[in-house]
Fold these 2 entries.
Entry 1:
Amino acid sequence: MKRHLKKINALIENFDVETELALQSVSKTKKYKKGEFLLYQGEICKSSFWIEEGITRKYYMNDKKEVTTELLFKHDLAVAFSSYVSNQPSLEFIQAITDVTVSCIDKNSFRNIKENHPHLIQLDLLMTEYYAMWLEKRLFEFHTLNAIDRYKLLLLEQPDFIRHIPLTYIASYLGISLETLSRVRTKI
Amino acid sequence: MKRHLKKINALIENFDVETELALQSVSKTKKYKKGEFLLYQGEICKSSFWIEEGITRKYYMNDKKEVTTELLFKHDLAVAFSSYVSNQPSLEFIQAITDVTVSCIDKNSFRNIKENHPHLIQLDLLMTEYYAMWLEKRLFEFHTLNAIDRYKLLLLEQPDFIRHIPLTYIASYLGISLETLSRVRTKI
DNA sequence: TTTGGCATTTGACTTAAGTCAAATAATTAG
DNA sequence: CTAATTATTTGACTTAAGTCAAATGCCAAA
């Protein structure tokens, strides 16, 4: 996964000036306050959000309960993927859980500039591959680890981030109840 | 998801003859007997397998138990994705569960011809998007459905599954024990 | 600095699904 | 066709995690 991020960075480093400008031309800086929504469930996701600062999460409602699907930090890309790709209403919300600054990239404009900038379609592919690998990893962890071990792994992989996030979100991200998470924490 | 498959097909229909030939030049028909392996755990996945005929599955071992990650049918693409993308040893086996015929596409050759055939990188992107959406859907189903409903959904979406596939594989694909699956089946 | 509202923990109980063992049923090989 | 093997079902019991309710901790605004 890390290796793949390096590939992505290497590609971006090698962008020619034109490509860089094109990308800038379709990007727009936006700011959201803690608690505000970058995307609502039911909306079609028409842009991707490159996190410049702060933390966001993706989640959906199931049975009046929130299921957090992803936690996104500085230099992550927040998108309601299926909605973005297939132009269908999003099942997910995207919400700022701290004040955030994002670089908002319009989807249609990005599609347009991809035509003339081969590096950009490569970037798109690499990012999508990265996301698919991340999803595979997440599925794998749900199948092979119990609540305790999933929490331990999260601590291991994202130690500092976890500090700033309410346990409710972490529990729902780990797919366990808040109470179970609380109990897990005492056992570590 | 269906809409996305249509996009993929539309793209393939519109391939120019050169692209088509290039693709053929890196493809090679192979046959496997029931039970044989297209890929072993630990191998680096250096090709993708387009299923022409038959059924395969992807699975890994966890605690001496098999976890089936994907069942693949005619016109599906079987790849150990993370291994393929990041050149790391595969955690997964790919196994023929009936006699199968596949069109085996060499990864490096495919990467080479992508350079000169822009349609092919578009194809790559669309296929990867499709896989990522499928993974999202699978995660969603694990989080929102219990054993009974996951089985019902499988019956609904892939009725032909059940006919040709031993229950052990179906159970491990649904993430439940064989016994639970057996009990679920009586309750339908 | 107090108060009201979240966030977290703790306790008692329930439940979905797993495990282990054994009994049938269905295929396959000889 | 029959034995052997493999697949599936059934039963009794266990367990990880969920639920509901209450207690405690913690911060932020008045």
Note: Residues 166-168, 178-179, 181-183, 185-186 of chain B lie near DNA strand D (CB under 10 Å from a C1').
Entry 2:
Amino acid sequence: MTMADRKQDTLFVNSLAKGLRLLEAFDEEHQSLGLSELAKRTGLDKSATQRFANTLYQTGYLMKDEATRRFRPSHKFAEMAYAYLWSDPVVQLAMPKLIELSGRLGETINMAELSGSDIVYVARIPCQRTTFAATLVGRRVPALNTSGGRAILAMLPEAERRACIENWPLARFTPETTQDRDKIAELVEEAAHLGYSFSRNELILKEIGVAAPIIGADGRPVAAVHCSVSAYHWTREKVEKDIVPFLLDTANSITPSLR
Amino acid sequence: MTMADRKQDTLFVNSLAKGLRLLEAFDEEHQSLGLSELAKRTGLDKSATQRFANTLYQTGYLMKDEATRRFRPSHKFAEMAYAYLWSDPVVQLAMPKLIELSGRLGETINMAELSGSDIVYVARIPCQRTTFAATLVGRRVPALNTSGGRAILAMLPEAERRACIENWPLARFTPETTQDRDKIAELVEEAAHLGYSFSRNELILKEIGVAAPIIGADGRPVAAVHCSVSAYHWTREKVEKDIVPFLLDTANSITPSLR
DNA sequence: ATACATTGTATCGAAATATGATACAATGAA
DNA sequence: TTCATTGTATCATATTTCGATACAATGTAT
């Protein structure tokens, strides 16, 4: 449905959608925004931006630095995450098992769910050496560039898999981030055979990632458990020996039933 | 500003505010909601609820189970948390230090910020034995019922402190949750002297909590670092000896500068 | 299987609400 | 100081939302 169609749709409240656009204007590069920057980023005119920003401020979604007049996301953003995490049966099931895995391995454990062409981290148990961005829930990363995403992809039917690999966006995080779709196809193929996916230097240099898919009750992959270790201390062989068995075990034990 | 005043305010977009009410309708007791339940909880009529829910669905904020027609929060909720956490200078500063502390103590570490009369957990590093709700970012708990909240309160000026203790809401999580405001005043007083706050059985039975405040550049408390341990393995004395020094050290090292 | 209550979906005229142009104020840079 | 930029306030207009109503689908009790 295009924007024009929505204009006609009497069940679509444009004012709400526009207001939500303001919330989405805040990201890594835009931690705080002034009114005119907000207008630019949302494509709304000055007056509309003013009204929506004010509304979000009054309702507590945005904070306002009275000195600079700039807006920033508020706690409410974090509270919303709670509502989501609490409601997600996979998270409920997984959490204790992820903690256990983290205790056993002593390394960073993540869980991510597929959201469109990205994965979204929904659980993170950091350890020393974990980079800041990798400690925060809700981060979105293109699925094709992560072991987690590729582990999930590997469990999809052949045709679907292929289409995703062709069309989904790629990003570049390090000089080594895989940009070649044929190479990604290979990696996914490999993951389909092994039952887990391996990555190196994709998001951060000298980082090794292993991920195993979590399969839903309908047989489709819903998420991935992911372990991230330093290439200074680990080799692929050592990971396969000391991490993969536990990782697979954990992932397999998290199989959500139909409600 | 009351609802009636807002009606007059041309800078307040009611449609946006109403839409946001739907998002807030989801909490611990309401993981998924049907249209009429949503209407009941938000106080909107059937048609309005229909339009707003549909809009939130179209924009990806709510998921819809096509079988049951019930709505649920989506990943977007978690992504918003990322925007917030990323933008918060205290979180940025604190995260690595919290991880270090967790590594050193081997116990659950949290950080919470004051939000009105509640504290909101913005960072959580769980360990074995951590209960599910205590692993999720964004949880809101009445400040008076937590060591974290009381540690923050203790750093406020006398008069302000007193007013909060008189007026802020209390909840009951266990039979032992402190309900007596005089007792709470005592505990806050103690925290003001010691520089940290101690709790027992407040949120969960057999849980001991210690919390130390983080002071902002303006001298006012902005957050608290919190450590939670089992009363089966720990006593107050042992906590004071083996945990408090490190906790205070960590909290003190997180002092955000003015931008 | 049938009737009934409940919940969700679709439509539309009326009117309240958001619109966005504009003017003004405040800030900060030259 | 002047000028450019950003934020704030106001208002007539018509676009949007409103909410009553009718209809469809679901599930429950008889």
Note: Chain B touches chain A through 68 residues (CB under 8 Å).
